Amino acid sequence: MDDVVLAIGTRKGLFLGRRGAAGKWELTGPHFPMQAVYSVGIDTRRSVPRLLVGADSSHWGPSVFRSDDLGRSWEEPARPAVRFPKDTDTSLERVWQIQPAGTGAPDLVWAGTEPGALFRSDDGGVTFEFVRSLWEHPQRELWGAGFGGQAVHTVITDPRDADAVIAAVSSGGVYRSSDGGASWESSNTGLKAEFLPDPYPEFGQCVHKIARDAEDPDRLYLQNHGGVYRSDDAGAAWTEIGKGLPADFGFAVAAHPRRGGVAYVSPVNDGSDRYQPDYRCRVYRTDDAGASWTALSAGLPTEEHYGVVLRDALRTDDADPVGVYFGNRNGEVYASADEGDSWRLVVSHLPDVLCVRAAVV
């Protein structure tokens, strides 16, 4: 059985899990016990895997920590790794996303922040450089702020091209760069913004999460504020694929790391309810790129359930067979060792789960 590390970021600290020989998870933590952990990156491109954690202290403020021994010890830079230049008259509120790039750029790591900005590290996440081109994009001043604030919450890299990167902004939409972040273009054709007078604007959509297909890197899956979408041209245009789901609202989407056409979502009712449909704990999987969806519930609670999965709390690992994981606002984390066909509870009674990451180490 593959040795997998499971990272669980919560509103009050980070918990790390390792799977034993019998498949039982053993957890340590909380690490950073009085800090909200909104982002975790597991960088397996290195000879020794590196954990990168975006933690937010209500007293000391936000910071990025790193560990090269799987959480036994942590390093924090003497100066903030992520900080806004003085001329922006802006301060960092939190780091929403830490994303190691593909194998073609072994030291490149991206960080998305609130306020909505992007930072780039070329030394494996030790220091980060402000990506001024996105901040100075003429549309940025017109971006809104979603319920969770305005943030660059998703960064998608291309395994074929280290200079191709996609950033998703709360109430800003999808932006693409083909030159390593030197320039950006909005890329929201077909995405609906039902809350705006023009429901199909050039930008301003409330994108919740994006995942890239394993077989075809030009295929992307997107969970919108109302609508699940697919792009077959690297985000240039989007098509709705939510038919067959009990609700097209939701926060999270994840893709299988090796099987093309396979993706996972966790639907949520829109409007004033914002619970899972029928108050049932389920994940939905497509095996045909969104043409159909299957409810996955074996091993999940059968009684009424009120745990919502947030945007970064549904993920896959790279094991064989692939593991799927989700955490919810009830403080529960569930894992599947068979690509979602069955589930088991990893841990319960944690603080709100904000993000989940897992990888073979």
Explain this structure to me?
InterPro entries: WD40/YVTN_repeat-like_dom_sf, Xyloglucanase_GH74. This is Glycosyl hydrolase. This protein is mainly β. The protein has a single domain, classed as 7 Propeller (Methylamine Dehydrogenase, Chain H). The protein contains 1 helix and 27 strands. The N and C termini lie close together (12 Å).
Helix-strand blueprint:
Elements: E1 4-10, E2 13-19, E3 25-31, E4 35-43, E5 50-57, E6 61-67, E7 94-100, E8 109-114, E9 117-121, E10 129-130, H1 132-135, E11 152-158, E12 161-169, E13 173-177, E14 185-186, E15 207-212, E16 220-224, E17 228-231, E18 239-240, E19 249-255, E20 263-268, E21 283-286, E22 294-296, E23 314-316, E24 324-327, E25 333-336, E26 344-347, E27 353-360
Antiparallel strand pairs: 1-2, 1-27, 2-3, 4-5, 5-6, 7-8, 8-9, 9-10, 11-12, 12-13, 13-14, 15-16, 16-17, 17-18, 19-20, 20-21, 21-22, 23-24, 24-25, 25-26
Protein name: Glycosyl hydrolase
InterPro entries: WD40/YVTN_repeat-like_dom_sf, Xyloglucanase_GH74
